[in-house]
Write a structure and sequence with these properties.
By secondary structure, the chain is an alpha+beta fold. The chain contains 21 helices and 37 strands. Helix 5 runs antiparallel to helix 6. Keywords: Coiled coil. It comes from Cacopsylla melanoneura.
């Protein structure tokens, strides 16, 4: 550091604002102060929608439990809209919603460095995109008038030897962000901890005369960057007391510096109304909050409001009985309608109206459960001592910080103890699902992805426009699920062609009650807006009415439109996902649809189970991934024990569940003697389903589906198992596989995760060719780049396997992660055991 300013620039009393009765021992005109405050309040009210408060702050760390709550309180006090953060020190990247604020962050693999933003949650609809460059550069772009605003948060390396290359890399990243977003076409605000001193001498139209200290080498580099990029260092152009200019102070408050800056492009510098620091703002950091008022306003963005969850916890109280009575009374007034659509609407409206009257919607906690009022009071007391520039003041400040830490640790420990007691109680009551929900609450990590980084269209161009992104998703879904195939779906044969005992029996009320009881709680709503908890609360008369409706659907094959509609929500599988294939989707479907499909599944699963081979471990009772892994390992151990080699191909099917041919599936269901009405109901469910994709809280147009099993449907796993079983049965009928006594083991399967087994490379080649050809007939496709082969042997040989598909060699590997566990070519498990122990230790430390 160079050229600090004098440390003696604040009062001797614990004040955080100069507008008080006394300042530095001098009396102030209180009436005038009150008048000024009223005047300022009036001005603020008048320009509320005309200005944004944008700040930057080096918070030193966010790893203390109380820090986020502390930060939110300061945001509230200063009425800040967006704040950039340096030195966050959170690992990885992600986003966090807390009360009325949303935070996005990017860190490294260690608890060092890190940058982020925290902004008002209501501004989320104006976010065009988020750009994550590194743990030193992050950016966010907002829709504002008259042009969009791009805010870049920076955390420059400290002035240590050997950091010059890293500094240049940071500048390069900043330039990339500016160029990617149309240099000069947006209002660019680049801010943060620059660890530079630009000095108090004016430099052209870049540095004003209200800087502090003497320019250093880093400051010269910053000025050069500003000159090349057409930027203006705003906080050096506004005249304020020095206590409103410095941004950093040494330990003990010996020296003060100006090293944090807010830069903006020259073209829009007139939109910066004022910039100054707020030394009274406190988060136990050696940096001051730097805040700019920007003359702009958020563009009006009309988006559908998020649907709030029902407060279903009230259904377990007296409100549940009131709800039950309201539904019963509403349904009693309306006679049963023969029209399926009208009858469904009657039931749906009765339940939804009763929910609105009795339970209402959930309200989220603005802060974490363990945050106490004592903690908040301690924060305020510490804040009062921050700027008392005496030995006693600094002593009291540290004392209050220590007390706050102890209070925080105590509060969190007590909350954790209660949660652990709750877990033990739920375990004794065998409420395993609820127990895991509490465990998840304790161990929950921050969301590990940052959304809204734009989508790549067919031309390879990344677009941030919402309507364009919706079109990208519609095109992807149409191609993935082959919309045109919907028209080619065959009808089931006429009912008259079936034997009487193969048509299907009437659905009983006991089946409906059991299916509803088995629905899981706390699950997302379908398009009908009815939670599973509400269905479980209904009395017998309402369940009877629903049973009548379900039987009409079963007898006619006609589904109400609500029950056919699925909402897909994309979730990124990796950071910086910009293509649809980089996302996985989860499905929101109506809970009554889930109940009906549960009933049908119960009726068909026995026949499907009878047609399953012993080598299928997926979605079957009493079997799981551990059993499949154990079979592969034990088989390899036995082969190696007798000095034999085992040849394995780990097959990767491309979008396996989404490529199921409906006509073949219906034929297979007929071949295994599934009842006619069950087959017809499945056929109408698949043919009539419509999908919308939820993109940034808005939905795309409806898309018709033409293939694949339904996401989120309880029947899908068993239907896919049956489909895959018939494919592999046809492909490997003439294959020998591996001999174990009198048995022939040809594969180990867990749904679409399949390990094909052979005793020689030639046999494996023939088996893979047969599987490949059968897959084409069944509409499936092997992902050649992800399909691997392995030779399990005691001998170490340089000779490589030469198994091919479509003229391409399959990659040979020495180890492969199968169903979550590592399989090694030498048949050992030593490395896997060590890895598991290390993972367990890591998770224990995280808790």
């Amino acid at each position: 550091m160079e050229s600090p300013v004098s440390a003696n620039s604040s009062g001797s009393s614990p004040h955080s604002d100069i507008r008080v009765d006394t300042f530095m021992g001098l009396p102030c005109n209180k009436r005038r102060v009150e008048s000024t405050e009223t005047e300022i309040g009036r001005k603020k009210k008048k320009r509320k929608t005309q200005t944004l408060k944008i700040g930057t702050w080096n918070v030193r760390t966010m790893n203390r439990e109380e820090k986020l709550e502390n930060l939110k309180r300061e945001m509230d006090k200063q009425k800040i809209n967006v704040m950039g953060l340096s030195e966050v020190r959170w690992r990885g990247e992600g986003e966090v919603i807390s009360g009325e604020y949303k935070m996005i962050y990017k860190g490294g693999t260690k608890k060092e460095k890190g940058v982020g933003f925290i902004y008002e949650k209501c501004m989320d609809k104006n976010v065009v995109k988020v750009l994550v460059k590194s743990d030193r550069v992050i950016a966010i772009k907002f829709k504002t008038d008259p042009v969009d605003t791009l805010i870049i948060q920076v955390y420059m390396p400290t002035s240590k030897p050997g950091t010059d290359e890293e500094v240049e890399e940071v500048y390069k990243q900043i330039e990339e962000v500016i160029d990617e977003n149309g240099r000069g076409q947006v209002r660019s605000i680049v801010m943060g901890d620059w660890n530079s001193v630009v000095g108090n001498e004016s430099v052209s139209n870049i540095v004003g005369k209200y800087g502090l200290g003497k320019q250093n080498e880093r400051g010269e580099r910053l000025i050069g960057f500003c000159e090349a990029s057409g930027l203006w260092i705003s906080n050096t152009w506004f005249q304020h007391h020095k206590r409103r200019l410095y941004t950093y102070k040494n330990p003990g408050d010996r020296n003060r510096y100006q090293i944090d800056y807010i830069l903006t492009n020259q073209r829009y510098k007139n939109s910066i109304i004022n910039v100054k620091t707020y030394p009274g703002a406190d988060i136990f950091s050696d940096h001051n909050l730097l805040l700019a008022e920007v003359r702009t306003k958020l563009k009006r963005v009309d988006r559908k409001k998020k649907t709030k969850k029902w407060d279903t916890a009230k259904l377990k109280t007296d409100e549940g009985r009131i709800f039950e009575g309201n539904v019963e009374e509403a349904l009693r007034k309306i006679v049963v309608n023969e029209n399926i659509k009208d009858e469904w609407n009657t039931i749906k409206n009765s339940i939804v109206e009763a929910l609105e009257v009795t339970v209402g919607k959930q309200s989220k906690n603005a802060r974490k459960e363990w945050v106490t009022q004592d903690m908040l009071e301690k924060m305020e007391q510490r804040r009062q001592w921050k700027n008392v520039n005496t030995d006693e003041g600094r002593k009291q400040y540290k004392k209050m910080n220590n007390e706050l830490r102890r209070e925080t640790d105590k509060a969190r420990e007590q909350w954790m103890q209660k949660q652990c007691e709750r877990i033990e109680e739920l375990e004794k009551l065998c409420k395993i699902e609820e127990m895991y929900q509490v465990v998840k609450t304790i161990t929950a990590k921050k969301t590990n992805v940052i959304k809204r980084q734009g989508m790549k269209n067919k031309n390879g161009i990344i677009t941030s426009d919402l309507e364009e992104n919706k079109k990208v998703w519609v095109e992807y879904i149409k191609e993935l699920y082959d919309t045109n195939a919907n028209e080619r779906m065959d009808d089931v044969e006429n009912q008259s062609e079936c034997e009487e005992n193969r048509i299907g029996q009437r659905i009983e009320i006991s089946e409906v009650k059991k299916a509803i009881k088995e629905l899981k709680n706390n699950k997302a709503l379908g398009t009908d807006g009815i939670p599973s908890e509400a269905l479980k609360t209904l009395d017998i008369s309402a369940i009877f009415r629903i049973t009548v409706l379900i039987n009409k659907i079963y007898d006619t094959g006609i589904w109400p439109e609500d029950l056919l509609r699925t909402t897909l929500v994309p979730l990124p599988k990796k950071p910086n996902a910009t293509e649809c294939k980089d996302f996985r989707t989860i499905s929101f479907i109506c809970h009554l649809t889930k109940a009906i499909t549960k009933i049908i599944m119960k009726r068909i699963e026995r026949k499907i189970e009878d047609n399953m081979g012993d080598d299928q471990f997926g979605f079957r009772k009493g079997r799981g991934t551990r059993d499949a892994m154990a079979c592969v390992r034990m088989l390899s151990e036995k082969m190696l024990e007798f000095n034999k080699e085992l040849y394995v191909c780990f097959v990767d099917w491309e979008k396996a569940f989404d490529r199921v041919d409906w006509n073949i599936l219906l034929k297979v269901l007929k071949d295994i003697d599934i009842n006619w009405k069950d087959r017809r109901l499945i056929r109408e469910l698949y043919k009539g389903q419509k999908v919308v994709v939820r993109v940034e809280d808005e939905e795309t147009e409806e898309v018709v589906i033409g293939r694949g099993v339904r996401q989120g449907c309880c029947m899908s796993p068993v239907l896919f198992n049956l489909y895959a079983e018939k494919l592999m049965e046809e492909a490997l009928e003439q294959s020998s596989g591996v001999s174990v006594g009198s048995e022939k083991i040809k594969s180990i399967k867990y749904a679409d995760d399949q390990a094909v087994l052979a005793e020689s490379e030639e046999d494996l080649q023939r088996m893979m060719e047969n599987i490949h050809n059968a897959g084409i007939r069944y509409g499936m496709k092997i992902n050649i780049s992800k399909t691997k082969v392995m030779r399990m042997s005691k001998k170490v040989t340089e000779e490589r396997m030469k198994v091919t598909l479509e003229g391409k060699y399959l990659e040979q590997v020495e180890n492969f992660k199968y169903l979550g566990g590592m399989i090694y070519a030498d048949g050992s498990c030593t490395k896997e055991i060590r890895s598991r122990i290390a993972m367990g230790k890591t998770e224990n430390l995280e808790i």
